Amino acid sequence: ASDVYKRQAKELADLVDNEVFVMDAFGSAHRAHASTAGVTKFVSETAVGYLMQKEIQYLGNAVEVPERPFVAILGGAKVADKLNVISNLLEKCDTLIIGGGMAYTFAKAQGGSIGKSLCEPDKLDYALEMIEKAKKNGVKLLLPTDTVAADDFSNDAKRQVVSTMAIPESWEGMDIGPDTIKTFCGAVKGAGTVVWNGPMGVFEFDNFAAGTRAMAQALADSGAITIVGGGDSAAAVEQMGFADKITHISTGGGASLEFLEGLELPGVACLLDK
């Protein structure tokens, strides 16, 4: 595979006039592909494009030299997708908010009944470790206290607001509840920097979009430097009409997550080598 990789990279470089390569595809910068990292070995000059520069500036500064208080909000379905992000942010931020599907693993880990909600049984110990790490580092860790539960995974399902620690057996958590919305939005007020990656619920269903919408509104009204990671959160902010009130919306889903993990991105590192 490495010979094929080299050949492809060389073929791409041969198309370049004056041996200059500008990398501006942040969304692919976390991948060591022939077209992102490989091609730089065969050209004499490389540069970062304007979009890439903006991504590095906002995401890099947000994590390394944030305006404080620094509030990080993580949502989405799985703890597994954000293991290292949670751990890294607990060393950097003042407040970490966890919503979305992965919050139910944290609830279950603390002895809650979560019904049919998403849960990763192999991540229960990890959730408890992160709760301990937050305490040790003096980071305020906010988890949902109430949940909008549904009796079916559909927009038209019956719904009720219940304690996140006591979701009825045949019901599943689909969004954060009204008390949690107040707490989470309150934590964003007065922040210096807010980074948000991952929705608060199943925002694709309008009846379960209130938590994600409230979060987007809170960021828009915060007066902070606000950065939204790519993927679902970026889609939600665009779709709900808050895009022009956010400081920076990342164009990379996986790339922005790896940046928040503190990883070196191959598509950036190869440019800095030159």
Characterization of this structure:
- 38% of the residues lie in helices and 18% in strands.
- The protein is built from 10 helices and 13 strands.
- The strands form 4 sheets. It has a 6-stranded parallel sheet with strand order 6-4-3-11-12-13, sandwiched between helices. Strands 8-7-10 form a 3-stranded antiparallel sheet.
- The two termini are 24 Å apart.
Task: Describe the structure concisely.
This protein has 274 residues and is α/β, with parallel strands linked by helices. 38% of the residues lie in helices and 18% in strands. It has helices spanning 2-14, 50-64, 83-89, 103-109, 124-137, 178-188, 210-221, 232-239, 253-261, 266-272, and strands at 20-23, 45-48, 70-74, 95-98, 113-114, 140-142, 146-150, 159-163, 166-167, 172-176, 193-197, 225-228, 248-249.
What's the structural blueprint in terms of helices and strands?
Elements: H1 2-14, E1 20-23, E2 45-48, H2 50-64, E3 70-74, H3 83-89, E4 95-98, H4 103-109, E5 113-114, H5 124-137, E6 140-142, E7 146-150, E8 159-163, E9 166-167, E10 172-176, H6 178-188, E11 193-197, H7 210-221, E12 225-228, H8 232-239, E13 248-249, H9 253-261, H10 266-272
Parallel strand pairs: 1-2, 3-4, 3-11, 4-6, 5-9, 11-12, 12-13
Antiparallel strand pairs: 7-8, 7-10
Helix pairs in contact: 3-9, 4-5, 6-7
Q: Which structural category fits the helices and strands? A: alpha/beta
Using the CA coordinates, give the radius of gyration.
20 Å
Total DSSP E strands: 13
Number of distinct helices: 10
Distance between the termini: 24 Å
Measured as a percent range, the helix fraction is 25-40%
Principal-axes shape call:
globular
Q: Give me the strand/helix succession.
A: HEEHEHEHEHEEEEEHEHEHEHH
